[in-house]
Design brief:
The chain is mostly beta strands. It contains two helices and six strands, in the order αββββββα. A hairpin with a 2-residue loop joins strand 1 and strand 2. The radius of gyration is 13 Å and the shape is globular.
Length: about 100
């Protein structure tokens, strides 16, 4: 799974979602309350229906044309609210990757 590899290696993801090109850095991957595989990612470029940069919750079944690339790791500012995208976390960059270093 490329999103998992992107988190483990802190690589950017370029993909298509909702027929829009997206450039993002995935932070948490797992499953939503309804059981769908989802990723919480910081979208820093590409297209969006809202302003960028911004946190995005993507349903992985709807992501296509995925590729990884090296580049600066992007993340949002302060976390003022608890994320609700991923209810069952499989991999979190802040817990499973960075705390091991």
């Amino acid at each position: 799974m490329l999103f998992r590899k992107a988190i483990l290696t802190e690589q950017q993801v370029v993909c298509s979602y909702d027929d829009r090109p997206r450039e993002l850095c995935p932070h948490i991957i797992g499953h939503s309350k309804s059981g769908e595989e989802v990723v919480l990612a910081w979208q820093f470029a590409g297209e969006s229906s809202g302003k960028l940069p911004q946190w995005r919750c993507l349903r992985l079944a709807q992501v296509s044309a995925i590729s990884l690339r090296k580049g600066r790791w992007h993340e949002g500012g302060s976390h003022r609210t608890e994320q609700t995208c991923v209810s069952a976390i499989d991999l979190d960059i802040n817990i499973h990757v960075r705390k091991r270093r």
